[in-house]
Each structure stands twice: as structure tokens, then as C-alpha cells.
């Protein structure tokens, strides 16, 4: 089994759908990714900030598994890391299977950046505008009648620091397991 790691890191200083690759990002405790438009103590997403501008920002860091891109490619959807707006593309983690409150430690040793998982990303019309037909691949109704959302997870920075491409990821799950919900 491969040790989970950071495939790549991305940010955008403006409200763009996709984010640009950078070899590393700096996480700021309680804020998010330094230099990224979604960094802040209160919600930074355009739609949410217009509705409840003082709500806490539970979407400071967006993570997507690289494996999603591998699944989409044979279906005719060539999506590269960063193009769906994530800050961190992971490899070797079932992000969607993590319970809310899980901690992700980035790097080796004890003094490393930490993100706490807050919930699921809600894929919306931006995904469809980015690539026609893609929304139906990352958000759909399962055979059991449940809504499946596969566009990554969101988290908050509980300990700041630099997250670099290639960094190992260690996961600590809470004792009580609560399923991820949209944040």
C-alpha cells in the first residue's frame, strides 16, 4: 500500500474556477491558503458570502483525490489537477470516506500543517460550465436513491505551515464517526 501524499498544490488570488499549480502552498491557521481568494475567517465564496457574510469559513481548503481524474479520463473527461478549483490534490486517500472532524497532517514529524475535514464540496453549475457533461459524473443519484458528490472535501486550517507537492499525509480519524455533509 502506498503512503498517502500530496500530488500537487494550487491557488488563485481571484475568483476563477480553476486554480494554478504552485510547488507549495502556505496554510494560515484559521484562515486558509495564503494568497488564495477563499482564505478568510468568514465565508469567502461569492454565493455564500452574499447570503450570510459573517458565517465562519468552513471551506478554507479544498481537497480532491487524484484518483478522480484517473476515473474521469476513460469516460472522455480530461481534467487536470487544479482545474476543479482544489488547493490540494491528494493521492492514496479515500477522501470521501473520511468522517467529519478527521485531521490531515501534511509532512513528516510533529511540527507540520494540519487541516480538519469539515464536509463535502457541493459541485454546481461551474463544473458544467467548465466542461459539459462533467457535473453528471461528479454529482448524481445512486441506485439506492442517494445524492453522490465526488468533487472533493473541504477543511479548515488548525495548524499553519507549508504544504509541498510530494509531502506525506497522515490521517487521524475521530472516535465518533459522523458522515460528511455539504458545507
From TrEMBL:
Residues 20-172 form the MOSC domain. SUPFAM superfamilies: PK beta-barrel domain-like. InterPro entries: MoCF_Sase_C, MOSC_domain, Pyrv_Knase-like_insert_dom_sf. GO terms for molecular function: catalytic activity; molybdenum ion binding; pyridoxal phosphate binding. PANTHER family: METAL-SULFUR CLUSTER BIOSYNTHESIS PROTEINS YUAD-RELATED, MOSC DOMAIN-CONTAINING PROTEIN. This is MOSC domain-containing protein 2.
Amino acid at each position: 500500500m502506498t503512503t498517502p501524499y500530496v500530488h500537487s498544490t494550487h491557488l488563485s488570488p481571484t475568483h476563477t474556477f480553476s486554480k494554478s499549480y504552485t510547488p507549495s502552498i502556505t496554510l494560515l491557521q484559521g484562515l486558509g491558503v495564503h494568497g488564495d481568494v477563499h482564505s478568510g475567517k468568514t465565508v469567502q465564496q461569492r454565493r455564500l458570502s452574499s447570503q450570510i457574510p459573517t458565517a465562519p469559513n468552513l471551506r478554507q481548503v479544498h481537497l480532491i483525490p487524484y484518483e478522480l481524474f484517473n476515473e474521469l479520463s476513460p469516460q472522455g473527461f480530461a481534467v487536470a489537477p487544479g482545474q476543479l478549483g482544489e488547493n490540494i490534490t491528494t493521492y492514496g486517500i479515500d477522501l470521501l470516506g473520511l468522517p467529519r472532524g478527521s485531521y490531515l497532517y501534511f509532512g513528516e514529524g510533529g511540527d507540520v500543517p494540519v487541516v480538519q475535514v469539515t464536509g463535502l464540496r457541493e459541485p454546481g453549475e461551474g463544473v458544467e460550465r467548465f466542461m459539459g457533461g462533467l457535473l453528471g459524473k461528479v454529482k448524481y443519484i445512486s441506485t439506492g436513491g442517494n445524492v453522490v458528490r465526488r468533487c472533493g472535501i473541504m477543511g479548515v486550517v488548525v495548524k499553519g505551515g507549508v504544504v509541498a507537492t510530494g509531502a506525506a499525509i497522515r490521517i487521524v480519524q475521530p472516535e465518533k464517526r459522523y458522515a460528511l455533509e455539504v458545507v
